[in-house]
C-alpha cells in the first residue's frame, strides 16, 4: 500500500543520500535540475512546492478520480504541470494536459521543462484561459493554480514579464477573482480545483464565493513562514454544499493529522470546511 507523504522536494533535493522512500516520492514529480528557466519566468518556489506537495498528498484520490482533462493556469516554469503529468500518466493512460500563462517566456520554458521530463501538455499564451473557454467548457477534471497573490498596487497587475508572477492587486485578489468564474465555467461536473492562497487574500471569502457556486472546500496543505501563511485549498462541486458537503471519491474516512492541524488553526473558517469525513 502506498502512503501519502508530505515532503518538500527542495528539502529532499538537499539530502545527499535520499532514502528509498524519498527517491520514490521524487520520481513521481518534476526534477528541479530538469526545470528550465528564464530571467523573466518565476522559478519554482515555496508556493510551487506547496502546490505539488498538495497534489502528492492527494495523489491516491487523484488516481482514483481518473481525470481526463487536467489544466494549469499560470504555469511559469512548468514545474507543477510537469509534476502532475508525471504523477498521473500521459495520453496513453487517457489524460490530456493544458497549461496557460500570460507570459510568453513562461510558455517556452514550460515546453522545455515538459520535454526534459518526457511528458506532454498543450501550452498556450493566454490571459487566464480566455482562448480555451469555449473549447474546454465543462471538461476540466483537475485544475491547478498558483496565482499572483501578493497585494500590490492595482496598476502592477498583468504587466509584462516576471512581475506578473506575483502582482495580485488589492488584497492580492485581482487575478484570483478573475480566475474563479473561469474555473467554474471550465470545470466538469466532477471537477477539482487546487489553488494556492495567502492569508492576506482572505481565503475564507474565496471559499464563500466558491460555496455560492456550489463548491465544498478543504485545506490540503498549509505552510507558514515568518512572512506569510500559504494554503493550498481544494474545491470540488457538491450538490449538498449548503449542508454537509461530502467529497465524492475520497477514500479517507478521517481527516489526516495535517488537515486536522490546519482546521484547528483556522477555527473561524470551520463552517466552510469539509474535512472529507
Ligand atoms: C506565482 S507564479 C506561479 C508559476 C508556477 N505555476 C509555479 O507554481 O511555480 C504565477 C504565474 O501566473 C502567471 N500569470 C499571471 N497573471 C496571469 C493571467 N492573467 N493569465 C495567465 N497567467 C498569468 C505569471 O506569469 C506566472 O507565471
UniProtKB/TrEMBL annotation:
GO terms for biological process: methylation. InterPro entries: DNA_methylase_N6_adenine_CS, Euk-Arch_PrmC-MTase, PrmC-related, SAM-dependent_MTases_sf, Small_mtfrase_dom. It comes from the Eukaryota. The keyword Cell division does not apply. Keywords: Methyltransferase, Nucleus, S-adenosyl-L-methionine, Transferase. Residues 66-152 form the Methyltransferase small domain. The keyword Protein biosynthesis does not apply. Its main location: nucleus. Coiled coil: none annotated. It is found in: Nucleus. Belongs to the eukaryotic/archaeal PrmC-related family. PANTHER family: METHYLTRANSFERASE N6AMT1. This is Methyltransferase small domain-containing protein. It comes from Coptis chinensis.
Amino acid at each position: 500500500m502506498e502512503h501519502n507523504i508530505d515532503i518538500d522536494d527542495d528539502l529532499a533535493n538537499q539530502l545527499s543520500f535520499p532514502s528509498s522512500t524519498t527517491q520514490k516520492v521524487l520520481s513521481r514529480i518534476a526534477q528541479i535540475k530538469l526545470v528550465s528557466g528564464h530571467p523573466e519566468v518565476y522559478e519554482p518556489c515555496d508556493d510551487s512546492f506547496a502546490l505539488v506537495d498538495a497534489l502528492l498528498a492527494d495523489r491516491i484520490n487523484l488516481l482514483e478520480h481518473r481525470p481526463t482533462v487536467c489544466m494549469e493556469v499560470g504555469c511559469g516554469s512548468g514545474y507543477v504541470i510537469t509534476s502532475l503529468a508525471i504523477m498521473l500518466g500521459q495520453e496513453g493512460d487517457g489524460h490530456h494536459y493544458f497549461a496557460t500563462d500570460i507570459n510568453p517566456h513562461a510558455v517556452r520554458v514550460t515546453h522545455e521543462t515538459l520535454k526534459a521530463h518526457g511528458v506532454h501538455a498543450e501550452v498556450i499564451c493566454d490571459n487566464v484561459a480566455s482562448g480555451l473557454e469555449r473549447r474546454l467548457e465543462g471538461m476540466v477534471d483537475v485544475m491547478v493554480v498558483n496565482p499572483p497573490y501578493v497585494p500590490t498596487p492595482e496598476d502592477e497587475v498583468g504587466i509584462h514579464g516576471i512581475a506578473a508572477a506575483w502582482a495580485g492587486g488589492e488584497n492580492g485578489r485581482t487575478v484570483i477573482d478573475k480566475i474563479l468564474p473561469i474555473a467554474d465555467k471550465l470545470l466538469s461536473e466532477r471537477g477539482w480545483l487546487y489553488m494556492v492562497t495567502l492569508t492576506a487574500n482572505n481565503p475564507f471569502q474565496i471559499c464563500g464565493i466558491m460555496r455560492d457556486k456550489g463548491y465544498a472546500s478543504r485545506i490540503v496543505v498549509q505552510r507558514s513562514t515568518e512572512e506569510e501563511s500559504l494554503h493550498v485549498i481544494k474545491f470540488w462541486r457538491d450538490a449538498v454544499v449548503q449542508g454537509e458537503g461530502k467529497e465524492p471519491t475520497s477514500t479517507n474516512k478521517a481527516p489526516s493529522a495535517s488537515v486536522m492541524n490546519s482546521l484547528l488553526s483556522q477555527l473561524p473558517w470551520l463552517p466552510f470546511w469539509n474535512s472529507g469525513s
